[in-house]
Design brief:
The chain has 9 helices and 10 strands. By secondary structure, the protein is α/β, with parallel strands linked by helices. β4, α3 and β5 form a beta-alpha-beta unit.
Length: 295
């Protein structure tokens, strides 16, 4: 029996690829972060950022929280803020899927939509202005140490445990970079032989949840030394792989998970042996109003 929905965050399943990976000498596992109560890997960071800020006394029930998000972090923050009875405003581009907007509002958050022309960068600028001019507290997932520390405390140890300490390669899409930074830090402490592979979109590809940031918007928590290799994935390949994950592995996930799986399979085909873990960062149901799964 659990005392709070927050106790269900983490300890997500690690599922072996049975069809997509065709290299018999390499095992590929998908870590199903959509099994978190808020439906994505961002539940981990959202909980740690809010709980740690409360514990330090940085925020309280009177604090006006604000955060820019492309979707999953916003849903997670809305859920966690509701648990702790906090007020939060979430800012996101107007071309975000309606499932995401509706889910945030269902959890009780105020949602502000900014022009799609200025993207997530514009949403971040809006939130920073509200923080400076109107006294809002911005959690700032892009610079918040509690973001990556969530994965240092949970995601990394879970993967190490569930692979019986035998993981050789970890593959993760890079957005805020919290997942890859925290997991890398933990795994490298266990064995420096573990290779950390980040995934970015190719030029002119738009993959929600994966970014190749302009220098001025590069997340402050990002440390390039913690990533051994970066693989680029096209939007077309990410879309196709999201569909293949559903039809061939029974894993219903979004486009960024398709991007990570594309990179992971490319890696599996290169290796002579190994145990590869790829993050499946969310569920596919929050993309049903988009054209992701159209034939």
């Amino acid at each position: 029996m659990n005392n709070s929905i927050a106790e269900l965050i983490g300890n997500t399943p690690l599922i072996k690829s049975t069809r997509l990976n065709t290299n018999p000498n390499v095992s590929l596992y998908f870590k199903l972060e959509g099994n978190n109560p808020g439906g994505s890997v961002k539940d981990r960071a959202a909980y740690n950022m809010i709980k740690s800020a409360l514990d330090r006394g940085d925020i309280n029930s009177e604090t006006k929280l604000i955060e820019a998000t492309s979707g999953n972090t916003g849903i997670a923050l809305a859920m966690i803020a509701g648990i702790f009875k906090l007020n939060i405003e979430l800012v996101m581009p107007e071309n975000s899927t309606k499932e995401r907007v509706q889910t945030m509002r269902a959890y009780g958050a105020k949602v502000t939509l900014t022009s799609s022309d200025i993207g997530i960068e514009g949403a971040r600028d809006y939130a920073e202005t509200k923080m400076i001019e109107d006294g809002y507290f911005m959690l700032n997932q892009f610079a918040n140490e509690d973001n990556w520390k969530a994965h240092y405390k949970t995601t990394g140890p879970e993967i190490w445990r569930d692979t019986n300490q035998k993981i050789t390669h970890f593959v993760s899409s890079m957005g805020t970079t919290g997942t890859i930074m925290g997991t890398s830090t933990f795994l490298k402490e266990q064995s420096n032989e573990v290779q950390i592979v980040g995934v970015q979109p190719t030029d002119n590809s738009r993959i929600p949840g994966i970014r190749k940031w302009p220098e001025e918007y590069l997340p402050k928590i990002f440390n390039a030394d913690k990533v051994d290799r970066v693989l680029e994935v096209s939007e077309t390949d990410a879309r196709l792989m999201a569909k293949k994950l559903a039809t061939e592995e029974g894993i219903f996930a979004g486009m960024s998970s398709g991007g990570a799986a594309t990179a992971a399979l490319r890696l599996c085909n290169e290796l002579e042996s190994g145990i590869v873990v790829s993050i499946v960062c969310d569920r596919g149901d929050r993309y049903l109003s988009s054209d992701l799964f159209e034939l």
